[in-house]
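Researcher: Here's a chain I'd like modeled. Treat it as a single chain, no partners, no ligands.
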Amino acid sequence: MKWTWSSGMCTALLLVSASAWAAGGYWAGIAEEVCTEVTKVETFAKAGKIEDAKAAFHTAYFGTFEEKKMEIAERSNFGISHTADVEEMFNNLRKAASKPGTGDVSALAETLRRELRKDGKALDAAKVNPDGNEGKK
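Model: Modeled as a single isolated chain. Structure tokens:
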């Protein structure tokens, strides 16, 4: 296999995800995956790469937070109100990243990362199944 930046990046992300899961649990690992993408949103937005920021946001929210069932796990275990607050954080980040001057991208990204990490730890502590639907293991 030819080593390229993209394959190296994918390998690095897989290693980070695997080590995060081993160190903190399943949901902490998922939270770290989302946080990695949130950091990309922040980095691209600050560099003025709006389309890249939008793509990273799409991956963070739809490709990881929703697809890997963290949204469902949060809603099932923390309630609709809490999940709506997290989704509002995502929405505020999306707006700030796609329309310069509509918010402090770094502050919004940091707030979201902090909340995701806290939620990941709480879901692991509650022994929530990876499917997110069945509540506690």
